[in-house]
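Note to self: the last two entries modelled the partners one at a time, which told us nothing about the interface. This time every component goes in together.
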Amino acid sequence: MATMGRPWSMVMKDIRVGLIGFGTVGSGVVKILEKNGSLIEKRLGAPLILKRVADLDLETDRGVHVDSSRFTRHARDVIEDPEISIVIELIGGFEPARSFVLDALRHRKHVVTANKALLAVHGDEIFRVAHQCGVDINFEASVGGGIPIIRSLREGLAANRMLSLFGILNGTSNYILSRMTEQGEEFEHVLRQAQREGFAEADPSMDIEGFDPAHKLAILISLAWGGRVRFEDIPREGISTVSPLDIQFASELGYKIKPLVMARAEESQIEARVHPALIPLDHPLASVDGVYNAVVAVGDAVGSTIYYGQGAGQMPTASAVVSDVIELARKVHHKTRGRLSPYSHQRRYVRKIRIKNIQHVDSCWYLRLSIDDRSHLVGRITGILEKHGIGMTTMIRGGQEGSRVVPLMIMTGTARGRSVGRALEEIDQLSGVLEKTIGIRVEDQFS
Amino acid sequence: MATMGRPWSMVMKDIRVGLIGFGTVGSGVVKILEKNGSLIEKRLGAPLILKRVADLDLETDRGVHVDSSRFTRHARDVIEDPEISIVIELIGGFEPARSFVLDALRHRKHVVTANKALLAVHGDEIFRVAHQCGVDINFEASVGGGIPIIRSLREGLAANRMLSLFGILNGTSNYILSRMTEQGEEFEHVLRQAQREGFAEADPSMDIEGFDPAHKLAILISLAWGGRVRFEDIPREGISTVSPLDIQFASELGYKIKPLVMARAEESQIEARVHPALIPLDHPLASVDGVYNAVVAVGDAVGSTIYYGQGAGQMPTASAVVSDVIELARKVHHKTRGRLSPYSHQRRYVRKIRIKNIQHVDSCWYLRLSIDDRSHLVGRITGILEKHGIGMTTMIRGGQEGSRVVPLMIMTGTARGRSVGRALEEIDQLSGVLEKTIGIRVEDQFS
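The predicted structure of the combined assembly is written out below.
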């Protein structure tokens, strides 16, 4: 307590930052430091100086000026610079990003990263090394772009036992489903359109097969429940099986189809899932369209809270990166570290989080069958569902009058994942069932 | 940098907390510390011990157990206890809350408060004393109940130049307008109903006349633009002039009437206002009903972000208070203070923020006149509006066919506050205008 009496507005020294990865988000970071540098100095009490920028491509014009003397092709020029106290990693992917981050930590640099894949898969190793080296790693930009959801979970809701999380966290999937909803076009068509417009990658599998949102969910679960998550444990389905017909049926029943992530605390495990879901039209998540993301975080004291904003893009992501840098710069000034654990729980309390087997998860389902109209199958189908304990609430026969192949849409009551799987296996073996049946979960309990 | 090499999971000592004010929120704080105590210990690394509770009423059963040895009727028993490092002030109002807070700071205690009135009016004095004494004051619960909006503005969006803020921050006003919208009842009737149900105070003037949301807006402006705000400078109108007729007209035109707060940065001043406003039905703020609050925060890098949750009530407010206590406990452990300025700008950069004169503010308006139908006034009214440079976009004549007194509703184009004021003064002097004309601003630019 001896040092508590003095006022704290001593003059701070420059804080020097290094950037590895000068792509879209990296250029955004440079733009913010340039444009808002004096404002950030007022907030922080010291200037943030971008000392070095490493990238393999030093030629492309990024629309921002960085003095060529600060450029380097070698990440180690950033990592080993003794004046740099904060390293920003924005190259993405597993390697060499993992090595650069570990190296920077071992050189006693605080690290800021937006790399969700890296943290979801190698987070445990990285957090351990940060701990051992007495430095911190911030990663607000890894989930929800510019939305301060990690800070909110780790600090703003720190008094709460978290009950559940729901989110729309993949811009590409959400953009594609939003466009399919507006235009009534097929998935493949809208995907190619999104690729042409730059809203989907040339290889879109990380997004549309749900890896990206599952990475983000793994990070949020770690924070919300203070433990390690094995990424492979998180059940994950992509959006490519959704058809315009499903969107239309869902809409008639008062739902929108959205790329959902969710997690809910049970007694000794976490129910977690990543998949397209039917969401009631009047729920706020149903209005989260295009490149916007949102997270519903439910705590035992605070109740339901929602966080909404742009989940990707140059400037929103750079906003989160630079805000993280500012926080670490405060730590550099105050010479503190470990104020917050990356798991939200202090390291000695961190345990492995058990993720519920998806086969044991109860949901209501939307089922779409493709049947031969002459086969008079409805009785047999409902019989199979009943045998597996699956009730029905709605059944709609689609298609033109007189057409041979017709879609049959069924909304079920609450049913266990395993029962639905077994029932669909039997149904798909019926001779009049012409295609693999599509099943999409309905989510209407946001608590 | 000499201390940076050691891991940080040293065992922390108990952190002792004192509570002044054992009312609704105070009891909520005790409930959280009891129920989530071991979870908080895992997050913080040390137990939070509620050592003393001061209140004048030690008899009433609050539904939580506090050992009688910890009770006192004297705030000084909390403030002067050398073991207590964090004092929570939850008595509300100006005095004795102001004296207790200043006293606690002078005794080198960190302070947590939910007292918006106190901070909006005496914040400058309180922040100065905290600074001089080398301790911190946290006040997340003062705005938006459990929503972590203060943390988000001060830290999560720290990289941004803030462009604007929009919010619904008064639960009572929002509840009353929501009920008027649902039931079509008059203001006075719904207010009495809300008072019976505990959603409005016996003296509701702080809420319905806009003092409470203006206090909250003053705090948010201070944080967003890093300066002192003179509370009296914030233009403020209450909701009591809104009638069911206005709500119905607004709805026909695609709007909801909501108790809005807003602030927008201009060259050298901040446009700020607190008043009921017509908001487009499809904007997220239009769906914020009942006791829920929301804030739209727009930054130059992040774009538009939204924060939503319960804006009042025992447990949401206590969630924010305890989360603040946890943050201060981390500071006690790390022996840091002043990491963040209560103004978001470091003290030497804090300046007075100039609030724009409401007479110079441009808005579209909804006007409701009460006219004698036989007086054929429409031509004269539009003439007066035109003379003051006020265009019209819609005019609707209400009332029954053949009734003598009819409401006339006008939607204007963008017009300066002063011009509208002058025009209404002239219009209200016309002999066929039977009541004072009601004017409500339209808000449809959320950027």
